[in-house]
Protein backbone atom coordinates (compact mmCIF):
# COMPACT_ATOMS: atom_id res chain seq x y z
CA UNK A 1 0.00 0.00 0.00
CA UNK A 2 2.82 2.35 0.92
CA UNK A 3 4.48 1.93 -2.44
CA UNK A 4 1.16 2.60 -4.18
CA UNK A 5 0.91 5.98 -2.50
CA UNK A 6 4.55 6.68 -3.19
CA UNK A 7 3.96 5.98 -6.83
CA UNK A 8 0.97 8.30 -6.95
CA UNK A 9 3.03 11.08 -5.43
CA UNK A 10 5.83 10.42 -7.83
CA UNK A 11 3.34 10.92 -10.59
CA UNK A 12 1.97 13.98 -8.91
CA UNK A 13 5.37 15.61 -9.06
CA UNK A 14 5.72 14.50 -12.65
CA UNK A 15 2.38 16.13 -13.43
CA UNK A 16 3.35 19.29 -11.60
CA UNK A 17 6.59 19.38 -13.54
CA UNK A 18 4.79 19.03 -16.83
CA UNK A 19 2.27 21.65 -15.68
CA UNK A 20 5.03 24.20 -15.29
CA UNK A 21 6.88 22.95 -18.32
CA UNK A 22 3.60 23.25 -20.15
CA UNK A 23 3.14 26.89 -19.28
CA UNK A 24 6.77 27.74 -19.88
CA UNK A 25 7.00 26.00 -23.20
CA UNK A 26 3.48 25.76 -24.57
CA UNK A 27 2.81 25.29 -28.22
CA UNK A 28 3.03 28.31 -30.52
CA UNK A 29 0.14 28.72 -32.92
CA UNK A 30 0.61 31.09 -35.83
CA UNK A 31 -2.86 32.49 -36.23
CA UNK A 32 -4.15 31.93 -39.76
CA UNK A 33 -1.11 29.79 -40.56
CA UNK A 34 0.55 31.00 -43.77
CA UNK A 35 -1.85 33.90 -44.25
CA UNK A 36 -1.09 35.47 -40.89
CA UNK A 37 -3.48 38.04 -39.39
CA UNK A 38 -5.05 40.00 -42.20
CA UNK A 39 -8.21 40.48 -44.26
CA UNK A 40 -9.66 36.99 -44.39
CA UNK A 41 -10.12 35.38 -47.80
CA UNK A 42 -13.60 34.45 -46.61
CA UNK A 43 -15.78 34.73 -43.52
CA UNK A 44 -14.96 31.41 -41.95
CA UNK A 45 -11.21 31.41 -42.59
CA UNK A 46 -10.02 31.96 -38.98
CA UNK A 47 -12.82 29.87 -37.56
CA UNK A 48 -11.76 27.02 -39.83
CA UNK A 49 -8.13 27.50 -38.86
CA UNK A 50 -8.91 27.37 -35.12
CA UNK A 51 -10.94 24.22 -35.54
CA UNK A 52 -7.96 22.32 -36.90
CA UNK A 53 -5.75 23.31 -33.96
CA UNK A 54 -5.71 21.89 -30.46
CA UNK A 55 -5.28 25.11 -28.55
CA UNK A 56 -5.05 24.88 -24.81
CA UNK A 57 -3.89 26.65 -21.69
CA UNK A 58 -0.17 27.43 -21.71
CA UNK A 59 -0.10 27.78 -25.48
CA UNK A 60 0.73 31.04 -27.27
CA UNK A 61 -1.08 32.70 -30.14
CA UNK A 62 1.19 34.51 -32.53
CA UNK A 63 -0.51 37.18 -34.63
CA UNK A 64 1.63 38.26 -37.58
CA UNK A 65 0.42 41.58 -39.02
CA UNK A 66 1.54 45.02 -40.14
CA UNK A 67 1.19 47.72 -37.50
CA UNK A 68 -1.14 50.49 -38.54
CA UNK A 69 -2.90 48.30 -41.09
CA UNK A 70 -4.34 45.76 -38.66
CA UNK A 71 -4.72 45.47 -34.91
CA UNK A 72 -6.19 43.08 -32.36
CA UNK A 73 -8.96 43.81 -29.90
CA UNK A 74 -10.32 41.47 -27.31
CA UNK A 75 -13.96 41.51 -26.21
CA UNK A 76 -15.45 39.64 -23.27
CA UNK A 77 -18.63 38.19 -24.73
CA UNK A 78 -19.74 36.16 -27.69
CA UNK A 79 -22.50 38.70 -28.28
CA UNK A 80 -20.01 41.48 -28.87
CA UNK A 81 -17.82 39.21 -30.90
CA UNK A 82 -20.70 38.22 -33.16
CA UNK A 83 -21.64 41.88 -33.65
CA UNK A 84 -18.00 43.02 -34.04
CA UNK A 85 -18.86 45.49 -31.29
CA UNK A 86 -16.02 47.76 -30.08
CA UNK A 87 -18.04 49.14 -27.18
CA UNK A 88 -16.45 47.24 -24.33
CA UNK A 89 -13.09 46.02 -25.52
CA UNK A 90 -10.95 44.52 -22.73
CA UNK A 91 -7.59 44.57 -24.55
CA UNK A 92 -6.00 46.11 -27.59
CA UNK A 93 -2.71 45.36 -29.36
CA UNK A 94 -1.50 47.38 -32.32
CA UNK A 95 2.23 46.73 -32.78
CA UNK A 96 2.63 43.55 -34.74
CA UNK A 97 3.70 40.90 -34.34
CA UNK A 98 1.82 40.14 -31.13
CA UNK A 99 2.17 37.08 -28.96
CA UNK A 100 -0.67 36.36 -26.60
CA UNK A 101 -0.14 33.73 -23.96
CA UNK A 102 -3.23 31.79 -22.96
CA UNK A 103 -3.07 31.56 -19.22
CA UNK A 104 -6.69 31.23 -18.18
CA UNK A 105 -9.53 28.93 -19.03
CA UNK A 106 -12.65 30.07 -20.81
CA UNK A 107 -13.57 31.29 -24.25
CA UNK A 108 -11.55 34.16 -25.74
CA UNK A 109 -12.67 36.53 -28.49
CA UNK A 110 -10.36 38.52 -30.75
CA UNK A 111 -10.93 40.54 -33.89
CA UNK A 112 -9.37 43.27 -35.93
CA UNK A 113 -10.75 46.64 -34.95
CA UNK A 114 -9.85 48.38 -38.21
CA UNK A 115 -12.59 49.28 -40.69
CA UNK A 116 -14.90 46.42 -41.61
CA UNK A 117 -12.18 43.78 -41.21
CA UNK A 118 -14.08 42.02 -38.47
CA UNK A 119 -17.31 41.87 -40.46
CA UNK A 120 -15.29 40.42 -43.34
CA UNK A 121 -14.10 37.57 -41.14
CA UNK A 122 -10.88 38.77 -39.47
CA UNK A 123 -11.99 37.40 -36.13
CA UNK A 124 -10.96 34.53 -33.92
CA UNK A 125 -12.82 32.77 -31.10
CA UNK A 126 -10.83 30.34 -28.99
CA UNK A 127 -12.47 27.73 -26.81
CA UNK A 128 -10.04 26.68 -24.18
CA UNK A 129 -10.50 23.56 -22.27
CA UNK A 130 -11.03 24.63 -18.66
CA UNK A 131 -9.80 21.43 -17.13
CA UNK A 132 -6.09 21.80 -17.07
CA UNK A 133 -5.42 18.52 -15.26
CA UNK A 134 -7.43 16.62 -17.82
CA UNK A 135 -5.65 18.41 -20.63
CA UNK A 136 -2.19 17.73 -19.25
CA UNK A 137 -2.90 14.12 -18.47
CA UNK A 138 -4.35 13.61 -21.93
CA UNK A 139 -1.31 15.17 -23.56
CA UNK A 140 1.43 13.70 -21.45
CA UNK A 141 0.09 10.40 -20.13
CA UNK A 142 -0.86 8.13 -22.99
CA UNK A 143 -0.34 5.14 -20.72
CA UNK A 144 -3.37 3.84 -18.87
CA UNK A 145 -1.43 2.88 -15.74
CA UNK A 146 -0.09 6.42 -15.39
CA UNK A 147 -3.57 7.91 -15.81
CA UNK A 148 -4.99 5.56 -13.21
CA UNK A 149 -2.26 6.56 -10.79
CA UNK A 150 -3.14 10.22 -11.37
CA UNK A 151 -6.79 9.45 -10.62
CA UNK A 152 -5.75 7.89 -7.33
CA UNK A 153 -4.22 11.14 -6.08
CA UNK A 154 -7.41 13.01 -5.22
CA UNK A 155 -11.06 13.31 -6.04
CA UNK A 156 -10.80 16.45 -8.15
CA UNK A 157 -8.20 14.84 -10.36
CA UNK A 158 -10.40 11.81 -10.65
CA UNK A 159 -13.31 14.02 -11.68
CA UNK A 160 -11.13 15.82 -14.21
CA UNK A 161 -10.40 12.53 -15.92
CA UNK A 162 -13.94 11.25 -16.19
CA UNK A 163 -16.12 10.69 -18.02
CA UNK A 164 -13.76 9.72 -20.80
CA UNK A 165 -15.30 11.89 -23.51
CA UNK A 166 -12.01 11.47 -25.33
CA UNK A 167 -10.69 8.25 -26.75
CA UNK A 168 -7.43 7.30 -25.04
CA UNK A 169 -4.87 5.62 -27.28
CA UNK A 170 -5.14 1.84 -27.29
CA UNK A 171 -3.06 0.24 -24.57
CA UNK A 172 -0.05 -1.50 -26.05
CA UNK A 173 1.15 -4.86 -24.71
CA UNK A 174 3.33 -4.69 -21.65
CA UNK A 175 6.66 -6.40 -21.28
CA UNK A 176 6.89 -8.16 -17.96
CA UNK A 177 10.41 -9.00 -16.89
CA UNK A 178 11.55 -10.94 -13.86
CA UNK A 179 14.10 -8.85 -11.99
CA UNK A 180 16.21 -9.39 -8.92
CA UNK A 181 13.99 -7.27 -6.68
CA UNK A 182 10.72 -8.53 -8.15
CA UNK A 183 9.07 -8.45 -11.53
CA UNK A 184 8.64 -5.15 -13.32
CA UNK A 185 6.62 -4.28 -16.35
CA UNK A 186 7.45 -1.77 -19.01
CA UNK A 187 5.30 0.02 -21.50
CA UNK A 188 6.18 1.88 -24.64
CA UNK A 189 3.43 4.49 -24.11
CA UNK A 190 5.16 5.47 -20.92
CA UNK A 191 8.49 5.94 -22.67
CA UNK A 192 9.55 2.37 -21.79
CA UNK A 193 9.69 3.29 -18.12
CA UNK A 194 9.29 0.49 -15.63
CA UNK A 195 6.03 0.57 -13.76
CA UNK A 196 6.20 -0.48 -10.18
CA UNK A 197 4.47 -3.74 -9.76
CA UNK A 198 2.71 -4.44 -6.50
CA UNK A 199 2.81 -8.00 -5.35
CA UNK A 200 2.22 -9.53 -1.96
CA UNK A 201 5.33 -9.65 0.14
CA UNK A 202 7.33 -12.74 -0.55
CA UNK A 203 6.15 -12.97 -4.16
CA UNK A 204 9.53 -12.17 -5.59
CA UNK A 205 9.80 -15.33 -7.60
CA UNK A 206 6.30 -15.60 -8.99
CA UNK A 207 5.59 -17.73 -12.00
CA UNK A 208 3.34 -16.27 -14.73
CA UNK A 209 0.93 -18.73 -16.27
CA UNK A 210 -1.39 -16.65 -18.41
CA UNK A 211 -2.83 -13.25 -19.16
CA UNK A 212 -6.15 -11.78 -20.16
CA UNK A 213 -7.00 -8.64 -22.12
CA UNK A 214 -3.60 -7.10 -21.61
CA UNK A 215 -4.29 -6.19 -18.00
CA UNK A 216 -4.85 -9.37 -16.01
CA UNK A 217 -1.97 -11.66 -15.19
CA UNK A 218 -2.15 -15.15 -13.74
CA UNK A 219 0.50 -15.57 -11.06
CA UNK A 220 1.70 -18.46 -8.99
CA UNK A 221 3.25 -16.98 -5.92
CA UNK A 222 6.32 -18.90 -4.94
CA UNK A 223 6.02 -20.86 -1.72
CA UNK A 224 9.68 -20.47 -0.77
CA UNK A 225 9.03 -17.53 1.52
CA UNK A 226 7.28 -19.62 4.11
CA UNK A 227 3.90 -18.86 2.62
CA UNK A 228 1.78 -21.49 1.02
CA UNK A 229 1.68 -21.86 -2.72
CA UNK A 230 -0.88 -19.40 -3.98
CA UNK A 231 -2.50 -18.78 -7.35
CA UNK A 232 -3.80 -15.29 -7.99
CA UNK A 233 -5.05 -13.08 -10.78
CA UNK A 234 -3.79 -9.51 -10.66
CA UNK A 235 -4.95 -6.51 -12.67
CA UNK A 236 -1.94 -4.47 -13.71
CA UNK A 237 -4.16 -1.43 -14.25
CA UNK A 238 -5.89 -1.33 -10.91
CA UNK A 239 -3.62 -3.66 -8.90
CA UNK A 240 -6.69 -5.56 -7.83
CA UNK A 241 -6.12 -9.18 -6.78
CA UNK A 242 -8.49 -12.09 -7.23
CA UNK A 243 -7.97 -15.50 -5.67
CA UNK A 244 -7.65 -18.67 -7.70
CA UNK A 245 -7.94 -22.24 -6.39
CA UNK A 246 -4.97 -23.97 -4.79
CA UNK A 247 -6.73 -27.29 -4.20
CA UNK A 248 -8.78 -29.89 -5.97
CA UNK A 249 -11.42 -31.37 -3.70
CA UNK A 250 -13.49 -34.29 -4.95
CA UNK A 251 -15.38 -37.06 -3.19
CA UNK A 252 -12.40 -39.37 -3.23
CA UNK A 253 -9.52 -37.08 -2.51
CA UNK A 254 -8.25 -33.64 -1.67
CA UNK A 255 -4.97 -32.55 -3.21
CA UNK A 256 -2.88 -29.45 -3.54
CA UNK A 257 -2.42 -28.37 -7.17
CA UNK A 258 -0.22 -26.35 -9.49
CA UNK A 259 -1.86 -24.52 -12.38
CA UNK A 260 0.32 -24.63 -15.49
CA UNK A 261 -1.79 -22.40 -17.72
CA UNK A 262 -5.17 -20.72 -17.52
CA UNK A 263 -7.49 -18.38 -19.38
CA UNK A 264 -10.87 -16.72 -18.90
CA UNK A 265 -14.19 -16.69 -20.73
CA UNK A 266 -14.75 -12.98 -19.95
CA UNK A 267 -13.58 -10.17 -17.69
CA UNK A 268 -13.08 -11.84 -14.30
CA UNK A 269 -15.22 -9.21 -12.61
CA UNK A 270 -18.17 -10.04 -14.89
CA UNK A 271 -20.95 -12.34 -13.74
CA UNK A 272 -20.58 -15.90 -14.99
CA UNK A 273 -16.89 -15.74 -15.81
CA UNK A 274 -15.45 -19.25 -16.19
CA UNK A 275 -11.78 -20.08 -15.86
CA UNK A 276 -10.20 -23.01 -17.66
CA UNK A 277 -6.72 -24.29 -17.16
CA UNK A 278 -4.55 -27.30 -16.98
CA UNK A 279 -3.27 -28.41 -13.66
CA UNK A 280 -1.35 -31.09 -11.89
CA UNK A 281 -1.11 -32.43 -8.38
CA UNK A 282 1.49 -31.13 -5.97
CA UNK A 283 4.00 -32.27 -4.91
CA UNK A 284 3.56 -35.58 -6.76
CA UNK A 285 2.46 -34.83 -10.31
CA UNK A 286 0.68 -37.16 -12.72
CA UNK A 287 2.47 -37.95 -15.95
CA UNK A 288 -0.05 -35.85 -17.90
CA UNK A 289 -1.80 -32.54 -17.42
CA UNK A 290 -5.38 -32.45 -16.18
CA UNK A 291 -7.92 -30.03 -17.61
CA UNK A 292 -10.00 -28.12 -15.08
CA UNK A 293 -12.85 -25.60 -15.15
CA UNK A 294 -14.01 -23.45 -12.31
CA UNK A 295 -16.10 -20.35 -11.74
CA UNK A 296 -14.27 -17.15 -10.97
CA UNK A 297 -14.32 -16.88 -7.19
CA UNK A 298 -14.29 -20.65 -6.53
CA UNK A 299 -11.64 -21.53 -3.98
CA UNK A 300 -11.39 -25.18 -4.96
CA UNK A 301 -11.55 -27.17 -8.18
CA UNK A 302 -14.25 -29.85 -8.17
CA UNK A 303 -13.10 -32.14 -10.92
CA UNK A 304 -10.41 -32.57 -13.55
CA UNK A 305 -10.49 -34.13 -17.02
CA UNK A 306 -7.84 -36.22 -18.72
CA UNK A 307 -7.59 -38.81 -21.45
CA UNK A 308 -5.34 -41.81 -21.31
CA UNK A 309 -4.19 -41.24 -24.87
CA UNK A 310 -0.86 -39.35 -24.85
CA UNK A 311 -1.88 -37.64 -28.09
CA UNK A 312 -4.68 -35.99 -26.14
CA UNK A 313 -2.40 -34.53 -23.47
CA UNK A 314 -2.93 -30.75 -23.47
CA UNK A 315 -0.21 -28.30 -24.37
CA UNK A 316 -2.02 -25.00 -24.70
CA UNK A 317 -5.43 -23.40 -24.41
CA UNK A 318 -7.34 -20.41 -25.70
CA UNK A 319 -10.84 -19.02 -25.34
CA UNK A 320 -12.21 -18.21 -28.75
CA UNK A 321 -15.62 -17.80 -30.40
CA UNK A 322 -17.46 -18.69 -27.21
CA UNK A 323 -15.59 -21.90 -26.31
CA UNK A 324 -12.43 -23.05 -24.64
CA UNK A 325 -10.10 -24.79 -27.09
CA UNK A 326 -7.28 -27.06 -25.92
CA UNK A 327 -4.40 -27.90 -28.20
CA UNK A 328 -3.11 -31.42 -27.61
CA UNK A 329 0.25 -33.04 -28.09
CA UNK A 330 -1.05 -34.85 -31.18
CA UNK A 331 -2.08 -31.42 -32.57
CA UNK A 332 -5.74 -32.24 -32.15
CA UNK A 333 -8.08 -29.69 -30.64
CA UNK A 334 -10.45 -30.45 -27.81
CA UNK A 335 -13.32 -27.99 -27.67
CA UNK A 336 -15.48 -27.69 -24.57
CA UNK A 337 -18.85 -26.97 -26.15
CA UNK A 338 -20.62 -26.70 -22.83
CA UNK A 339 -19.42 -26.40 -19.27
CA UNK A 340 -22.14 -27.02 -16.70
CA UNK A 341 -21.77 -26.47 -12.98
CA UNK A 342 -24.54 -28.26 -11.16
CA UNK A 343 -25.69 -29.45 -7.77
CA UNK A 344 -26.88 -32.94 -7.01
CA UNK A 345 -27.80 -35.10 -4.03
CA UNK A 346 -24.89 -37.34 -3.20
CA UNK A 347 -23.65 -39.30 -0.22
CA UNK A 348 -22.76 -36.13 1.63
CA UNK A 349 -25.99 -34.27 0.94
CA UNK A 350 -26.04 -31.56 -1.70
CA UNK A 351 -22.85 -31.74 -3.73
CA UNK A 352 -21.49 -29.81 -6.64
CA UNK A 353 -20.16 -31.10 -9.91
CA UNK A 354 -18.95 -30.08 -13.33
CA UNK A 355 -19.99 -31.62 -16.63
CA UNK A 356 -18.41 -30.85 -19.97
CA UNK A 357 -19.59 -31.62 -23.48
CA UNK A 358 -16.50 -32.22 -25.51
CA UNK A 359 -15.90 -32.11 -29.21
CA UNK A 360 -12.59 -33.26 -30.64
CA UNK A 361 -11.29 -31.78 -33.87
CA UNK A 362 -8.79 -34.30 -35.19
CA UNK A 363 -5.70 -33.13 -36.96
CA UNK A 364 -5.49 -34.89 -40.31
CA UNK A 365 -2.24 -34.61 -42.20
CA UNK A 366 -2.89 -33.81 -45.86
CA UNK A 367 -0.34 -36.31 -47.16
CA UNK A 368 0.22 -34.50 -50.45
CA UNK A 369 2.53 -36.27 -52.89
C1 LIG B 1 -11.77 30.07 -47.28
O1 LIG B 1 -10.49 30.29 -47.82
C2 LIG B 1 -9.56 29.22 -47.63
C3 LIG B 1 -8.19 29.68 -48.15
O2 LIG B 1 -8.29 30.32 -49.37
C4 LIG B 1 -10.10 27.98 -48.33
O3 LIG B 1 -9.21 26.90 -48.11
C5 LIG B 1 -11.46 27.65 -47.75
O4 LIG B 1 -12.00 26.53 -48.44
C6 LIG B 1 -12.39 28.83 -47.90
N1 LIG B 1 -13.64 28.53 -47.23
C7 LIG B 1 -14.84 28.80 -47.78
C8 LIG B 1 -16.03 28.44 -46.95
O5 LIG B 1 -14.95 29.30 -48.89
C1 LIG C 1 -5.62 17.36 -31.86
O1 LIG C 1 -5.81 16.35 -30.89
C2 LIG C 1 -6.35 15.15 -31.40
C3 LIG C 1 -6.64 14.23 -30.25
O2 LIG C 1 -5.64 14.29 -29.28
C4 LIG C 1 -5.37 14.57 -32.42
O3 LIG C 1 -5.90 13.39 -32.96
C5 LIG C 1 -5.11 15.59 -33.52
O4 LIG C 1 -4.16 15.09 -34.41
C6 LIG C 1 -4.65 16.90 -32.95
N1 LIG C 1 -4.56 17.89 -34.00
C7 LIG C 1 -3.51 18.68 -34.19
C8 LIG C 1 -3.59 19.66 -35.31
O5 LIG C 1 -2.52 18.61 -33.46
C1 LIG D 1 -20.08 47.25 -21.15
O1 LIG D 1 -19.63 47.23 -19.79
C2 LIG D 1 -20.53 47.86 -18.90
C3 LIG D 1 -19.87 47.90 -17.54
O2 LIG D 1 -18.86 46.95 -17.39
C4 LIG D 1 -21.86 47.14 -18.89
O3 LIG D 1 -22.73 47.79 -18.04
C5 LIG D 1 -22.42 47.10 -20.31
O4 LIG D 1 -23.59 46.34 -20.34
C6 LIG D 1 -21.39 46.52 -21.27
N1 LIG D 1 -21.90 46.65 -22.63
C7 LIG D 1 -21.98 45.65 -23.46
C8 LIG D 1 -22.45 45.95 -24.84
O5 LIG D 1 -21.68 44.49 -23.12
C1 LIG E 1 -8.74 -4.51 -15.11
O1 LIG E 1 -8.23 -4.31 -16.38
C2 LIG E 1 -9.16 -4.13 -17.40
C3 LIG E 1 -8.47 -4.06 -18.71
O2 LIG E 1 -8.58 -5.31 -19.25
C4 LIG E 1 -10.01 -2.93 -17.13
O3 LIG E 1 -10.93 -2.70 -18.19
C5 LIG E 1 -10.74 -3.17 -15.86
O4 LIG E 1 -11.50 -2.05 -15.51
C6 LIG E 1 -9.81 -3.55 -14.72
N1 LIG E 1 -10.61 -4.08 -13.67
C7 LIG E 1 -10.66 -3.54 -12.48
C8 LIG E 1 -11.60 -4.16 -11.51
O5 LIG E 1 -10.00 -2.60 -12.19
Explain what this protein looks like in three dimensions:
The structure is a single chain. The protein has 369 residues and is an alpha+beta fold. The chain has 3 domains: 50 residues, no CATH class; 98 residues, Immunoglobulin-like; 118 residues. Helix content is 17%, strand content 36%. It has a 6-stranded mixed beta sheet, with no helix packed on it. Strands 4-3-6-7 form a 4-stranded antiparallel beta sheet. The chain has a 4-stranded antiparallel beta sheet with strand order 11-12-13-14, with no helix packed on it. It is elongated and about 95 Å long. The N terminus is likely disordered. The site of one 2-acetamido-2-deoxy-beta-D-glucopyranose has 8 residues, from loops.
- How are strands sequenced across the largest beta sheet? 19-15-16-17-18-20
Query: What is the helix/strand order?
Result: HEHEEHEEEEHHHEEEEEEEEEEEEEEEEE
Small molecules (ligands, ions, cofactors) in the structure: 2-acetamido-2-deoxy-beta-D-glucopyranose
Overall residue-averaged pLDDT value: 81
Poorly predicted regions: 1-5, 8-24
| Terminal Cα span | 64 Å
Q: What count of helical segments does DSSP give?
A: 6
Total E-strand runs: 24
Strand content: 35-45%
Radius of gyration, CA atoms, in whole angstroms = 31 Å
**Tally of structural domains:** 3
Helix content: 10-25%
Secondary-structure class: alpha+beta
Main sheet record: 6 strands, mixed
Q: Name the shape in a single word.
A: elongated
InterPro entries: Cupredoxin (IPR008972), KIB1-4_b-propeller (IPR005174), Phytocyanin_dom (IPR003245)
GO molecular function, one term: electron transfer activity
Organism: Oryza brachyantha (malo sina)
Keywords: Disulfide bond, Glycoprotein, Signal
Amino acid sequence: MASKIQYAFLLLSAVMASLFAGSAAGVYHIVGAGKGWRMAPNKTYYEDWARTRNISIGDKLMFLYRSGVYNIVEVPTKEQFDKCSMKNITNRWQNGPTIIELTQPGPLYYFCGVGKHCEEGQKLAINLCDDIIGEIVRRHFPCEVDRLAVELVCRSWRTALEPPAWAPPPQLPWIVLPEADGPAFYCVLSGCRAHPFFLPHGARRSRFFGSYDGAWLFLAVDPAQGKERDHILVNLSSFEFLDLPNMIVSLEFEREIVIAAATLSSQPTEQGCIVAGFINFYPLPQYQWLIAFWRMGDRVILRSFAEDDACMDVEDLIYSAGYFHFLTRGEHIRVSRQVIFHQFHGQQGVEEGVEVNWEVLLFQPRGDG
